[in-house]
Amino acid sequence: MTIFKWLNENLEKTLATILFMAFSGLMIVNVLMILISNEAIAWASEGVMLFFVFFVWIAISYAFKERKHISVTAVVDLLPETGRKGLAILVNFLVIGFFAVLVIAGIELLLHPSVQNKSSLLLKYPMWIFYFSAPLGASLSIIRLLQNTIVDIKNFKKETTV
Q1: pLDDT tens, 50-72?
Q2: Which three-class secondary structure state does DSSP give residue 161?
Q3: CB under 8 Å to 61, separation ≥6 — which residues?
Q4: Dist. CA 21–CA 162, nearest whole Å
Q5: Quick one: CA torsion of 101, 150, 60, 122, rounded to 10 degrees?
Q6: Do 61 and 14 form a contact (C-beta atoms < 8 A)?
Q7: Which DSSP symbol is given to 123?
Q8: What's the rounded Cα separation, in Å, for the pair 23 and 13?
Q9: Using CA atoms, how far apart are residues 138 and 135, in angstroms rounded to an integer?
C-alpha cells in the first residue's frame, strides 16, 4: 500500500482518534486531580480546547469522506433520481466554495500581525497554531468533497437500486 493510498484511507480517522484520546485523557486526568487533590491542572482547559478544535475540524473532513453528514431529504426525495444526483453535485460545489472562503479567510487571519505576535495564556504556544485548525480542516474537507463530486459525476448516468 502506498503512502498516498494509506493517507487517503486513514488520515482523518487516525488524527481524529489521536486527538479524541488526547482531549478525553486530559479531561479525565484533570477531573481525577480535582477529586484527589481538590486542585485542577491549570493549563488543562487550554490543552483540551486546542485538541478539541483540531478534532472537530478533522472530524468534519472525515464525515465528508464517509458521506456521513446529517442531511434533510424531505424535498430532495420528491425529485427524480437524476434530479437528486444533480442537486447533490451542485450542493457539493456550493460547499466547496464555502470551504474555499474559509481557507482564504483562515490564511489571512494566520498572516495577521495580531495572531502572529500572540501566544496562549497558560501553555504559551503560538496562537497561529490554534488558528491553523480552520484552514487545515477546510482544506481537507475540500479534498474529500472533490473526491465525492468526481465519483458522483462518474456515476451520474448509472442507475442506483435503492
Answers
A1: 999 999 999 999 999 999 988 88
A2: coil
A3: 12, 137, 140, 141, 143, 144
A4: 37
A5: -60
A6: no
A7: S
A8: 16
A9: 5
The region that residue 134 occupies, defined by phi over 0 for left and psi between -120 and 50 for alpha, beta otherwise, is: alpha
Check residue 103 and give its pLDDT.
Answer: 98
Any idea which residue has 435503492 for its cell? 162
Residue in the block written with cell 495580531: 114
Neighbours of 65 (CB within 10 A): 20
Place of cell 475540500: 142
pLDDT digits (tens, 9 = 90+) for 84-108: 999 999 999 999 999 999 999 999 9
Contact indicator for 100, 143 with CB cutoff of 8 Å: no
- CA–CA gap between residue 30 and residue 75 (Å, rounded): 47
Distance, in Å, from the CA atom of 107 to the CA atom of 103, rounded to the nearest integer, reads: 6
What's the pLDDT at 140? 97
Nearest CA among 106, 97, 126 for reference residue 57: 106
